[in-house]
Amino acid sequence: MRTYGIVLLLVGMMIAPARAQEPTDFQARYRTAKELLQEGKYSLASEYFLALAQEEASTNIFVAYAAYYHGLAALLNGNGELAGDIWGKLVGKYPDWREQGELVFWKGTMAFASGQLGEGYRVLAQMKSGPQRDALEKVKSYYTLKETDVRRLQRLFEEYSDDRELAVHLADCIVMQPMVQQNQELLEFLIGDFDLDPSTYNRITPGQSVKKEQYRVAVLFPFQHEVLSQRRPNAIPVFYQGLFDRYEGMRMAQEALGEEGKTIELVAYDTKGDSATTAGILALPEMKSVDLIIGPLFPDARELVLQFSEENRIPMFNPLSANADGIGNNPFAFLINPSHETRARRVADYFTDNSTDSTVYIFYGTRTQDSLYAYAYKAEMELRGFWVPVVMQVDEEKSQTGFEFLTETVRYHDLKDLDSARAVDLLNDYLERKRDNPNLRLEKEEAFRIPNDSIGHILVASD
Q1: CATH number of 214-335
Q2: The model's pTM
């Protein structure tokens, strides 16, 4: 099995018994089995070691080693359950065997390889200093660095907060996330507590705040996109009408601030919705002196402005999107609205603290942002150990569908349509009530398809 083969390459360990007199035939078969194991012929090696391990051990110390290698061959052949069973019997039969540390090493390795990092760390913490602990340290490093899920690493760090390697890897993974998803407070702690280089983690060095008489705001919108040139003035798509409304709102805000003595120079640049035009705008010398950029809207042009914003330390706002991809990892970029992931985390925080039932149902509307929010919430709740059996789209014109789904009933004689556990519960309920009321008839009885009080909370992802 490739997973454990890598472990052998990492640690290079193959234990051997102390020199002793053993039967010549046994010795030959033992060496053959070891060679098969080293050649990767795990199934055949397992058969050899099994036969050796079943021999009388009163005068032959190699039997215990044969049992150990039988388990190792099973593990390398992909049967971890059999390996664990073999080694458990080995410990019971030879409680004073001097290679107990080797079994602990493989227990930790199996935990790491199966993704149970917390269990692997716990096994490692209990090991005494020695070659087996050193070997498991290498295994720990290998599997820790393979893990990129920030939530899992963060939970691990909460328990092993003095592990520098884990801390550095956690910081590395945090900065790989979109900026709006990054836990800045935790990142700041890791940088300070482990003396990490702030520049490596895209930290902004605070500059001097300068109060100006006038602030210059560049608006990069596709005012003359080709879509508009093909339309009559009274047939402008809703998206672009909203765009013009936003720009008009900016002009109204400019006038209101001017009345308060705050001068804003609002400069509109037409990107025409393409990256070439946007690149030309960014090349203008005046762009490096703006105080704020609003826009652009389309992905290709946005990537250019994100890079320009970060290089010149100019804040920029995405005025429409709630998608974290719209600002990437630029610390100077902001969304006008919270991202779907941020909203999901905040709602999840509330229900994590206040819900006693871990079952969640999610309904969402027909818009793209509805489904993005719904599935962001599903992912967030599942990370926290909640169960999300239902994620259902509901058409706004057929909103009754969601209600009908929740209140649907089923007749007792149709219980075959339910899962077995629910069917058994309903039948037991029916039989108990029938004892008190013999006139009950199975074909007339019905109940909610979804059991009463079985849902912790419902999220409706739609405006």
Answers
A1: 3.40.50.2300
A2: 0.60
